[in-house]
Design goal:
D-Maltodextrin-Binding Protein, domain 2; 2 domains; alpha/beta; ten-stranded mixed β-sheet; globular; 11 helices; binds glutamic acid
């Protein structure tokens, strides 16, 4: 026979389960917070803002973009890992926060199992941009300049341990040059100092740098892609400058805390599918310099897993240390 106390706790659990289920069925009935773990103006922020309005229309509730930058994206991401798994706190997942940190950081404050990947929104090439006054007009000239002046020049990144940092370290190892690393809270913050001339070089994703390349406030010297970009046909790839196998791609997706109810995840997945099939949304993402993806949750989870393996290998092969 059930003791009264046990009975009460079983009843409570059942009530909570039913209430949770009902909440999942009526989801969403209040605004959703979308955490961008980097500063405004970076590519994570740009992609989040491209989807927040159509996603809000598809779900019938406001999406509030919240920039929680710091520690290379760890702060905002860890906060979402700890949030209630009810669909009202989501994060932009990046190759840095979903792959590089869980694969290489001793204690990132969460694990890849802390999240359910919903969909990868957009992929994009990485780029090497410089202050326009830097006396180099292509990658080969830049490498020659850096070789002749070890430790004289500096590069900015989105923070320690991010893909931008990993690119900077891989570039130094591959090209045999020494440059100082200056970490920021995201490319949005890093870019300002590169344009202002306080830092010389920036490893970035194309969408954040593109407007400033096009306006001449930054000079695009290299693309980290398997082939040249059709939008910048005169700019060489890393491979052309002698850095083999250097084509790491960046991407931004939507992730929810683990244990989010299946009904909520299904609602988010179908809304994202709808958003990413809208021609105007796709056109805006493409215009920004990215490629819309929109894979399924299972495909996105498999992608994260296989990229983690690849990253561990790359970090070893390139002998990268994220310590300064
Ligand atoms: N560069 C990105 C930004 O500042 C973050 C790094 C990443 O792509 O993971 O938004």
């Amino acid at each position: 026979m059930l003791h009264l106390r046990q009975f009460a706790s079983v009843a409570l659990c059942a009530t909570a389960f039913i209430a949770g289920n009902a909440a999942a069925q009526s989801y969403p009935d209040k605004p959703i917070r979308l955490v961008v773990p980097y500063a405004p103006g970076g590519s994570t922020d740009i992609i989040a803002r491209h989807i927040s309005e159509p996603l809000s229309k598809a779900l019938g509730q406001p999406i509030v973009v919240d920039n929680k930058a710091g520690a290379g994206g760890l702060i905002g991401t860890a906060e979402v890992a700890r949030a209630a798994p009810d669909g009202y706190t989501l994060a932009m997942g990046t190759v840095s926060t979903m792959v590089i940190f869980p694969a290489t950081h001793p204690k990132p404050g969460y694990s890849v199992d802390s999240f359910v990947p919903i969909t990868n929104i957009a992929a994009m090439p990485n780029v090497l941009v410089v202050n326009p006054k830097l006396p180099a007009n292509n990658l080969r000239e830049l490498i020659a300049l850096l070789k002749a002046n070890p430790d004289k020049y500096s590069y900015a990144s989105s923070g320690k341990g991010t893909i931008n940092h990993m690119l900077g370290e891989s570039f130094q190892a591959g090209a045999g040059v020494k440059i100082q690393h200056v970490p920021y809270k995201g490319s949005g913050a890093a870019m300002n100092d590169v344009m202002g001339g306080q830092v010389d070089i920036l490893f970035d994703q194309l969408p954040s740098s593109k407007p400033h390349i096009d306006s001449g406030r930054m000079k695009l010297l290299g693309v980290i892609a398997p082939k040249r970009l059709s939008t910048y046909p005169n700019v060489m790839t890393m491979e052309e400058a002698g850095l083999k196998g250097f084509d790491d791609q960046a991407w931004y997706g939507l992730v929810a805390p683990a244990k989010t109810p299946p009904a909520v995840l299904a609602r988010l997945s179908s809304a994202m599918k709808q958003v990413l099939s809208m021609p105007e949304v796709r056109a805006r993402i493409e215009h920004a310099g990215a490629i819309p993806v929109g894979n399924t949750s299972a495909e996105y989870a498999a992608q994260i897993k296989s990229e983690m393996e690849k990253t561990r290998k790359l970090v070893k092969e390139r002998n990268i240390s994220f310590e300064d």
